[in-house]
Amino acid sequence: MLRRVGLIALTSVTLVAAASGAPPNPALASQELVPGENRLIQLYRDYRPTVVKVKFATQTTDENGKEKIALTVQSGFYIDAKGTVLTNAVPTQKGPRLRVEKDGLQMLAVPIASDARSNIALLQVAKPPAGIQYVDLANALPPPAIGSLAYAITSPLDLAPTPKLGIVTGRESSFSQIDFPCSYLRIGISSGPAEGGSPVFASDGSLMGMSVASLPDVNSSYIVPNASLKHIVDQLLAKGKVFHPSLDAKIIERIDPITLERSLVVSEIETGSAAKKSGLKRGDQILSFESKPISSINEWRDALFSSQAEQFVSITVQRGETESEIALLLTDG
């Protein structure tokens, strides 16, 4: 929907000029479009060599009990000179053979680790070619503002790496009934077949994130922001898994209909849970997390995501007219 709005806005500019009888102003058009186009061309030249195609075949059974082979194709990109590839989740059990393809060269690869919840995996190319160019994850920058330009380089089906241009259209930590492990960036760039796992860049050339989910009805997709992406990659490399700290209580976001101020409230809490034993109660309003003020569900999930499972965190709650500090033990959810 938001991508359509962008197109309608650009079209409207042309229609207004035509209706006034004045010829289109090439200078105005170039001021708005050429810089973005030139930047996309430059980023494509810089990062095309880093993008690869990931393929693996899995055996499945259809509704008639007949076995069949399903081929999965997705995008990915190198993150170091040793041939480590960042992509969407892959099977880690023995059996499926993973291949990484680049410019017609097929290379066997093995999974390092994979996390189904975030849809992120790391692969190691068995015999990496010399001179690998890669995307550096070291500089994890804050998420960009809504409306910022986003530049994707995808690897659709059996086609060559393909540039795409869009804008950041939102930031959410859930979609419909699906809760994300942290807040994701929604971008006005569609993610078609085999394009999951594509890198997305900001105008300054830094990595904005990686595509992990598609929203085909609105020609959009979700990406995991770079800072969260690096947090996941660090855990996959160090621990072989990703911890998802959680609290055995349900937290909801409320919006005041008059002031539009947001607040976080405990709506459910499990009987006998660690949270209940710590003193948390249904109806408590959460004011801060580790001394940092917090009021939105995005902030809550991001705070949990950056914490450590099986460790205590301190939150401040308001109950009636009283504020209290509670130490809560996080579990690995």
Automatic annotation (TrEMBL):
Residues 1-29 form the signal peptide. This is Serine protease. The keyword Transmembrane helix does not apply. It comes from Pelagicoccus enzymogenes. GO terms for molecular function: serine-type endopeptidase activity. PANTHER family: SERINE PROTEASE FAMILY S1C HTRA-RELATED, SERINE PROTEASE HTRA2, MITOCHONDRIAL. InterPro entries: PDZ, PDZ_sf, Peptidase_S1_PA, Peptidase_S1_PA_chymotrypsin, Peptidase_S1C. One of its GO terms (biological process) is proteolysis. Belongs to the peptidase S1C family. Keywords: Hydrolase, Protease, Signal. Residues 263-321 form the PDZ domain. The keyword Protease applies. PROSITE patterns: PDZ.
